[in-house]
Request: fold
Amino acid sequence: MSASSIPFTVSGGVVLVTGAAMGMGRLYALRAARGGAGVVILWDVDADGLATTAAEVTALGARAVVRRVDLADPAAIAEAAAECREEGPLTLLINNAGIVRGALFWDHNPERDIALTMDINALAPMYVTHAFLPDMMDDAGRPRRILNIASAAGTVSNPRMSVYAASKWAVIGWSDSLRLELEQQGYGHLAVTTFCPSYISTGMFDGARGPLLTPLMTPEDAVDRAWRATAAGRPQLIAPATAQLGKVLRGLLPVRAWDFVGGKVFGIYSTMDKFTGRGEKAGTR
Reply:
């Protein structure tokens, strides 16, 4: 029986979660520990949050490996990856860390907002995956997975999200291209899932409101959906269903017609009007 035909499990394996100090990153780490992972590697810049998550992971029976890593720094990623590769090939890599700056484009600071958002949201998942991918490709003894957290913002344009949306469009294009490359080159044991959720009530999007018929998802629901899709090797998950509908309609309708439907009917174009976020902690790194 080939690894690609064996049901995926993290039991006894090694899992890496970026942005693991809080929010969904913490929940992914706990899900891995509950699933029997032998080692859960936790990356973030928040040392106190990492310590809390590590204690919870350990209490669930897994060994927590903590690294304070600034994902905006490629050298820091390379150094931490070199250390953590000693744990063995990853069974599951979750590129979860991200930040958001909700503002009109011209109000973005080039370094603090534009460069930082692209570094953490778009480039860091590529650097992290590139560091661990060879070992995951070479060891086909069990199914392995990569989960890349994108956003429904990467499928439809939205005012006050220009740079964030750009970063998530980049993730979607890279992640799905990587999926195809692995499939074409015969690495059937290693599947890539791209998760594109709408707004999630983690605090990262405080003040934002969901479009018509699209309430904010709970972190627990989002993590459960993403985990099950990843285990099944599903290429992409856009959730909830209304976010998928938005993507379809945007592709079918002329631009101005979609502007009316998306902006006036669904209210997508005003969802960030009262965004506040977490201030200086608007996301994890």
User: Anything to note?
Assistant: The chain has a mean pLDDT of 94. The two ends are 39 Å apart (CA to CA). The beta strands are 14-18, 39-44, 63-68, 92-95, 98-99, 144-149, 190-197, 236-239, 283-284.
